[in-house]
Amino acid sequence: MSIIDRIKAWYTGKYVPPKNNPSSDLIFIIGHYERHWTASLARVIIEFYLREWKWFWGIFIAIVSVCIAFLTLSEPLCNIA
User: What is the pTM of this model?
Assistant: First the structure.
């Protein structure tokens, strides 16, 4: 199993089939996936990014711009000695 397959399996989670009563005529077909808490957190972060990517990049560019301006202006413009 390659690393890509392991990441896919971790992200998808383990399939849990429905619990059916053997003596009942009612049968449940659809199960659910149980995910590790880190996979659930990764899903929340990815879903947030996909919804709000415009805000993310705007804030990121603003922070990088402020850092560049601070580093540029903190250096002396010319050394007059």
Answer: 0.58
